[in-house]
Design a protein that fits this description.
This protein is mainly β. The chain contains three helices and 57 strands.
């Protein structure tokens, strides 16, 4: 019985320990831009959006499902009163193996869209059957296909010598649609070996079984439509690129492009034959080819034109086409987004990367009219890519204002964006102020990652940042000294180097790791290692020496790369915790990171899944940058994370409690003997300054972090009565203590 109680006690203790870091998505904080409140501010941004529709919540309305290729993440948006709202709870219902492309198509004619994606393990197309029951949450079953001897999880087709993989390129988006009008799904994809011609795989489900609930493909041709892509806007119809005269191929007489391709079939003129939209990784346009053949199967393409004719798509690279009804009128609309893994050009505009054209024609004869270049993005914080948040009370009104560092902007320079908190310390509300705080754009930096710290030890928070210089390509650590005691007043022209260089993909956090009063450096390496550089001091100096190349035992790793770092007391136990983010969008928390026996192990089961009522790891948008901030005046702070897709997420602790209106501060022992050490502890961050009973200033303001025992030697104080003046949320409080 004693053993049982010990086991029970250990189990309860373990559960309590594991329950310390639990968060839910919070979308309640208003954000205003140019006088207009954003509808879904904290949806995380979008870059390379592959858009589909699906009834997510069984209300017989088509909602939006987006797979962002660059972040390798799914976004879900519910249709709600003729608009959309971000609903992240549905994202976990999709297979974790979705990779490279996501196409939702109903292959078995049951009225429920099934899922097609690239299988990176075997190289081919995987299919997930939609097994959702009426009124139940979405569910999927991965299909297997018989090769004649074994089962495989990728689609097969009958080639020249038997069953083979249907193999698009890893960066391709194939066309999956009923090409011959018989009710089952066929596939047209660019060839893997010679990616300038398309192959057609006919589904014989109807012909052989009289139904469409199976997938039985045979390759009909490796030159569907009798065309060959030679270069951007140069297509050989009825001949090869080598036979083509004129255009860019006249001198080279060979195919230039071997990158990713995207195909989408569409009947633009109601002649019953599928035309094709085609895009290529190295080109900036989508090309329309008209089918002059006898049928969709016996297609003969002729002439290519940029698409749509009026206001054609024009991205820097690889625009991918999509057809979905997103305005609730029953007609398929046209959308496009760059199908990129990451930024390759400074001029790529990821904040306006989902173009929407309304179908102002009919379902039979569509006509696509340009509406906007930032569908959904215009209702969320989206700074393009690599959004790095930081918070500080910039205007001295007692609440946290929001800063976002950016990689680049319309003039190719990085900037820091400021949103003023016009709410309160308990109920935040942000309003856009400027997209060039401190006029840093004039300094010709890009890849700016900000934070705030008292670098020069003058009692004020300075703006610290890493950035890459255009003229040298070198990434370094800088700071802007704050000239005000009450607010943040800095000038980009006054940037100060801290004589520390790093890789452009690495991340730095300044923090007093060893509690000696001087700011040390933690560096998240591209390799996944976490390095600790100790500052020999004194405070305000930069004497950094590598102390530990694998801090917290975080050494080089292939599964954990591009670490970013944040620190804060997440569980209100008086000990600071450390948060890392990685290239997979996953946050990991290390409880009481200064502990050495044992070194803390990370936990990443942080975010609530409301369907299973469990907590798990969550992709927050590819590469991710967390910061810890108390937005809601609670005992446990929130985590705000920026990401690859240029947006932000607010993770609110789901077991936090609101703090009382006035701070609770303990000063002990009181009275204290001369020569002893005074210990100060507060339930929130405060500033404390010591005065004599006559009002004479004894000390400069001291920053006291929440829930941590702050030790203050008082051997310089004579016996007598002193006043500790406490500043919190722009309010002053006083507390007496006696030295005897």
């Amino acid at each position: 019985m004693k053993s049982f109680y010990l086991f029970l006690l250990f189990t309860v203790a373990s559960l309590c320990a594991s329950a310390q870091f639990h968060y839910t998505f919070d979308q309640s904080v208003p954000v205003e831009v140019n006088g207009k409140q954003l509808a879904m501010s904290w949806a995380g941004g979008l870059n390379s959006a592959q858009i589909n529709t699906l009834d997510l919540n069984a209300d017989n309305k088509q909602d939006i499902v987006i797979f962002d290729k660059g972040a390798s993440k799914i976004w879900t948006f519910l249709q709600d009163q003729s608009t959309y709202r971000y609903a992240p709870e549905y994202e976990s219902l999709f297979p974790a193996e979705v990779y490279s492309f996501l196409l939702l198509r109903d292959y078995n004619c049951d009225g429920k869209k099934d899922l097609f994606t690239f299988n990176s393990s075997i190289n081919g197309i995987s299919v997930y059957k939609n097994t959702t029951l009426n009124g139940e949450k979405i569910s999927w079953q991965k299909l297997n296909f018989y090769t004649g001897s074994v089962y495989t999880e990728i689609l097969l087709t009958k080639g020249f010598s038997g069953l083979i993989n249907i193999l698009p390129g890893i960066d391709d988006i194939p066309n999956i649609a009923d090409m011959d009008g018989d009710g089952d799904l066929d596939i047209v994809n660019m060839r893997f070996v010679n990616p300038s011609t398309a192959e057609y795989h006919k589904n014989f489900a109807q012909e052989r079984f009289g139904r469409c609930d199976t997938l039985v493909f045979e390759r009909q041709t490796q030159r569907w439509g009798d065309w060959e892509e030679c270069s951007c806007g140069v297509i050989a119809f009825g001949k090869t690129c080598a036979e083509l005269t004129g255009g860019r191929q006249e001198s080279t007489a060979r195919t230039e492009h071997t990158g990713g391709k995207a195909l989408l079939a569409i009947d633009m003129d109601n002649d019953g034959k599928k035309d094709i939209l085609f895009a290529e990784e190295q080109c900036n346009r989508i090309y329309y080819m008209h089918n002059n053949g006898a049928s969709s199967e016996a297609a003969v393409m002729s002439e290519e034109n940029v698409f749509p004719t009026a206001t054609p798509i024009s991205f820097n690279l690889f625009p991918a086409p999509f057809l979905e009804d997103i305005d609730f009128d029953g007609l398929p609309d046209f959308l496009a987004s760059p199908n990129l893994n990451s930024r390759t050009l400074f001029s790529t505009n990821f904040s306006q990367s989902l173009w929407y054209y309304k179908n102002t024609g009919t379902a039979q004869v569509p006509n696509f009219t340009f509406v906007k270049n930032n569908f959904l993005q215009d209702q969320m914080i989206d700074v393009g890519d690599n959004s790095v948040p930081a918070f500080v009370d910039a205007d001295g009104d007692g609440d946290k204002d929001m800063f976002i560092g950016t990689f680049t902007s319309t003039n190719y320079t990085g900037r820091i964006i400021l949103y003023e908190n016009i709410g309160t310390a308990t109920d935040p509300s942000f309003r856009f102020v400027t997209d060039d705080f401190g006029l840093l754009s004039l300094v010709q930096f890009y890849n700016i990652k900000p934070q705030f710290a008292d670098v020069n030890a003058d009692g004020t928070q300075d703006l610290v940042f890493t950035a890459t210089r255009f003229d040298t390509g070198v990434t370094s650590l800088f700071y802007l000294p704050n000239s005000s005691k009450e607010m943040i007043t800095v000038s980009g022209a006054n940037y100060q180097p801290m004589n520390f260089n790093l890789s452009s993909t690495e991340n730095i956090l300044l923090h007093d790791v060893n509690s000696d009063g001087a700011l040390d450096l933690l560096i998240g390496k591209t390799t996944g290692a976490l390095q600790y550089y100790e500052n020999a001091g004194p405070a305000g100096s930069f004497n950094f020496t590598l102390k530990n190349s694998s801090f917290l035992n975080l050494a080089t790793s292939t599964s954990r790369q591009n670490l970013s770092i944040a620190i804060g007391d997440l569980d209100a136990d008086g000990n600071e915790d450390l948060v890392t983010g990685n290239q997979q969008g996953i946050l990991t928390v290390y409880n009481n990171f200064r502990s050495t026996n044992p070194v803390p192990e990370g936990v990443n089961d942080l975010v609530l899944d409301s369907f299973t009522e469990t907590y798990g790891a969550k992709n927050l948008g590819g590469r991710v940058w967390p910061t810890v901030v108390n937005l809601f005046n609670t005992d446990k702070p929130s985590i705000v994370a920026g990401n690859t897709t240029g947006g932000l997420y607010v993770l609110k602790s789901d077991n936090s409690q609101e703090l009382p209106l006035d701070p609770e501060v303990s000063i002990s022992p009181n009275p204290v003997s001369a020569g002893e050490i005074l210990t100060i502890k507060a339930d929130r961050n405060i500033s404390l300054q010591i005065f004599s009973i006559l009002g004479q200033k004894i000390s400069e303001p001291l920053f006291i972090p929440a829930n941590q025992a702050y030790t203050l030697p008082i051997n310089h104080l004579a016996t007598g009565i002193y006043i500790a003046r406490i500043l919190s949320d722009k309010k002053n409080y006083g507390q007496k203590f006696v030295v005897h």
